[in-house]
Specification:
Layout: E1 8-11, E2 20-24, E3 31-36, E4 39-44, H1 52-66, E5 75-79, H2 85-102, E6 106-109, H3 111-117, E7 126-136, E8 139-148, E9 151-154, E10 159-161, H4 168-175, E11 180-183, H5 186-189, E12 201-205, H6 212-225
Parallel strand pairs: 2-5, 5-6, 7-11, 11-12
Antiparallel strand pairs: 1-4, 2-3, 3-4, 7-8, 8-9, 8-10
Length: about 240
C-alpha cells in the first residue's frame, strides 16, 4: 500500500527554469523537495529517523505532484551532514544511487550551511550566521557562514567541539566579526558556548532546522555558477568516528 504524503506547495524564485530534487535527513526534521517551473513541492517525513524506503516514496510522490519525470531533473542536492549518522548516510546513499542511475550532477551541501540558509534572509546585505547542532555525547557541531544577499559562504570549516573548550567570542575575534545571528537548536543545549559573548548576538533562531527547500535555492546558485559535482562526490561528512544517532 502506497504511503500518504502531505505535500506542501510554494514558489521558487531562484530560477524558474531549474528543476531539481533535494534531500535533507541529517536532523530530527527530515524533508524532501522538488522545484519545477517556478514552484516547489516539499514533504516532511514522519518521525526523526525515516528509512530509505520512505525517502524514495516521498520522491515518487513529489515528482508526480510536480509533473516531473526523472529525466527532467537537472541535479540532485543533499545535505551531507554533520548530523545523525543514519540520516546522513541515507541522504548520501539515495543521492548517489539516483545520480549514478540517471547520470545527473550533484550538489553536496553542509547541513550547517543549510541551517544558515534558513535564516539568511534576516538581513539584505552581509551577515555572519553561527550555526550549532547537538552532536550528543556532550559535544556540538558548529559552523560559521557569511550570508551575502542569499549566498552562503563559509568562514571556517565545520567542526565538532567540546563546549567547555569553545567560545563564540574567540571565533568572532579570529574571524573579525562584531555581531552575528545564531541558528540551530545546539546553542541552548550548550549555553557555555556563548559565555562571554554579550553584545555579539544580533538575533536568535534556536528552533530552526535545515530544510530541503532552502537546499534547492543553493543548488540553483551552484548550477548557474557551474560548481555542481559528479555522483562520486555524494559522500557524507560525519565529523566524528563514533557513531551516534
Amino acid at each position: 500500500m502506497m504511503a500518504f504524503f502531505n505535500i506542501e506547495r510554494g514558489s521558487f524564485t531562484a530560477s524558474p527554469a531549474f528543476t531539481a530534487l533535494g534531500i535533507e535527513t541529517a536532523t530530527s526534521r527530515s524533508t524532501v523537495a522538488v522545484c519545477h517551473t517556478g514552484k516547489t513541492y516539499s514533504v516532511t517525513l514522519s518521525g526523526s529517523r525515516p528509512g530509505a524506503g520512505e525517502v524514495y516514496g516521498a520522491i515518487d510522490a513529489l515528482l508526480t505532484a510536480a509533473g516531473v519525470v526523472p529525466a527532467d531533473l537537472m541535479c540532485i542536492a543533499f545535505g551531507c551532514g554533520p548530523g545523525g549518522f543514519t540520516g546522513v548516510r541515507i541522504a548520501a546513499a539515495v543521492t548517489q544511487g539516483l545520480a549514478y542511475g540517471l547520470q545527473l550532477p550533484v550538489f553536496r551541501c553542509s547541513t550547517l550551511a543549510l541551517l544558515a540558509a534558513s535564516v539568511a534572509d534576516v538581513e539584505a546585505g552581509s551577515a555572519v550566521i553561527a550555526t550549532a547542532l547537538d552532536a550528543r555525547q556532550g559535544e556540538a557541531y558548529v559552523g560559521f557562514y557569511r550570508a551575502v544577499n542569499g549566498d552562503i559562504q563559509p568562514l571556517r570549516a565545520d567542526a565538532l567541539c567540546d563546549p567547555a573548550n569553545f567560545r563564540l567570542s574567540a571565533v568572532a575575534a579570529t574571524e573579525n566579526f562584531s555581531t552575528c545571528y545564531l541558528a540551530g537548536p545546539g546553542w541552548p543545549v550548550y549555553p557555555e558556548l556563548l559565555q562571554g559573548s554579550e553584545g555579539l548576538v544580533k538575533h536568535e533562531e534556536f528552533s530552526c532546522l535545515p530544510e530541503a527547500v532552502n537546499l534547492l535555492s543553493l543548488a540553483a546558485r551552484a548550477h548557474t555558477a557551474g560548481t555542481l559535482t559528479d555522483a562520486f562526490a555524494a559522500q557524507p561528512n560525519y565529523l566524528r568516528d563514533k557513531v551516534t544517532d
